TrEMBL record:
Domain Dehydrogenase E1 component as annotated: residue spans: 13-312
Cross-referenced PANTHER family: PYRUVATE DEHYDROGENASE E1 COMPONENT SUBUNIT ALPHA, PYRUVATE DEHYDROGENASE E1 COMPONENT, ALPHA SUBUNIT BACTERIAL AND ORGANELLAR
InterPro entries according to UniProt: DH_E1, PDH_E1_Alpha_Subunit, THDP-binding
Alphabetical list of SUPFAM superfamilies matching this protein: Thiamin diphosphate-binding fold (THDP-binding)
Source organism per UniProt: Microcoleus anatoxicus PTRS2
Name used for this protein in its record: Thiamine pyrophosphate-dependent dehydrogenase E1 component subunit alpha
Keyword Oxidoreductase: yes
Cofactor(s) the record lists: thiamine diphosphate
Record keywords, A-Z: Oxidoreductase, Thiamine pyrophosphate
């Protein structure tokens, strides 16, 4: 990987981490009234995938969407304003954490319904083909989505129509509080499900941003050149509770030992160590990055807090019956 690109990917991951850690700090103030699903620990996937895309491509996401939105180039001020339910938010304060959108960045939207954006993404890919657009569509989802019928229907259709869509599965091992062994047969890998639909399917280390970027680059090139869909499964781990800013290892569905094992694999610390060792990143560079991001975050928080709440009259705008 070119050194400058590796450094840019590190900056992207660090930015996502610092933004979400700021949310962790502010959430107890009870001013953000929406549920939040943090992606701390999973930043390499969002950064590695989105760095392969053109501005004209399209990204769809799920309930754990912060990292995808930011890596795709979503507006930070609009993002935090949405957390606060303000009129300047990317959904005018009506959506909150799980409903993010930034059309200027090609971020077409996120939704909390498991698997809900997959058929929409496949439809967008079909639309791009029908319009003759050189567009690739990426859709992020968790491994539990592969247990939904809509995933298989969408994968079958994408394969049948040879659509330019990249399915990105973030396998963090748990669906809320339920592990893989209680949801899927032992010994079966998630990417094998997509392979059964005759879709090129691959599995990678979701905490290795260079590997994520390389695998996604190949998938995006395949889609853009008419080679059809690809399924990428990236194994990773969420550090925080399923929904909220805290830790939940005390609940018993996973162990503290397991968490510590995955924490050692932190994608940011891992990449930082590599870049420092190779001389691509210096301690001064790191300090400057943290300073730049921290200033940007503080400015965005101030913007969000000072923004007005939406007028109640807009409640029934942009809806369909």
């Amino acid at each position: 990987m070119p050194p400058e690109l590796h450094k840019q990917l590190f900056f992207s991951m660090l930015r996502i981490r610092l933004v979400e850690e700021k949310i962790v700090e502010l959430y107890p103030q009870q001013e953000m009234r929406c549920p939040i699903h943090l992606s701390i620990g999973q930043e390499a996937i969002a950064s590695g995938v989105c760095a392969t895309l053109y501005p004209t491509d399209a990204v769809f996401s799920n309930h754990r969407a912060h990292g995808h939105y930011l890596a795709a180039g979503g507006n930070l001020k609009a993002f935090l304003a949405e957390m606060y339910g303000k009129a300047t938010g990317c959904c005018q304060g009506k959506g909150g954490s799980m409903h993010l959108i930034d059309l200027d960045a090609g971020f077409m939207g996120s939704a909390p319904i498991v698997g809900g954006t997959i058929p929409v993404a496949v439809g967008a890919a079909l639309g791009a083909v029908m319009q003759g657009l050189n567009k690739v569509v990426v859709v992020f989802f968790g491994e539990a989505t592969t247990e939904e019928g809509v995933f298989h229907e969408s994968a079958n259709f994408a394969a049948l129509k040879n659509l330019p869509v990249v399915f990105v599965c973030e396998n963090n091992l748990y669906s809320v509080y339920t592990g893989m062994s209680e949801r899927q047969p032992l010994g079966r890998e998630v990417y094998a499900l997509a392979k059964s639909h005759n879709i090129p399917s691959f599995q990678g280390d979701g905490n290795d941003v260079a590997q994520v970027h390389q695998m996604t680059t190949e998938a995006v090139q395949r889609a853009r050149s008419g080679g059809g869909p690809t399924f990428l499964e990236f194994k990773t781990y969420r550090w925080r509770e399923h929904c909220g800013p805290n830790y939940d290892n005390d609940l018993g569905y996973r162990t503290e030992a397991e968490f510590q094992e995955w924490k050692v694999r932190c994608p940011i610390q891992r990449t930082q160590a590599q870049l420092l060792e190779q001389g691509i990143l210096t301690a001064q560079d790191l300090d400057e990055m943290i300073g730049v991001i921290s200033s940007e975050v503080e400015e965005a928080v101030s913007f969000a807090k000072s923004s007005p709440f939406p007028d109640p009259q807009i409640l029934f705008q942009h809806i369909y019956a």
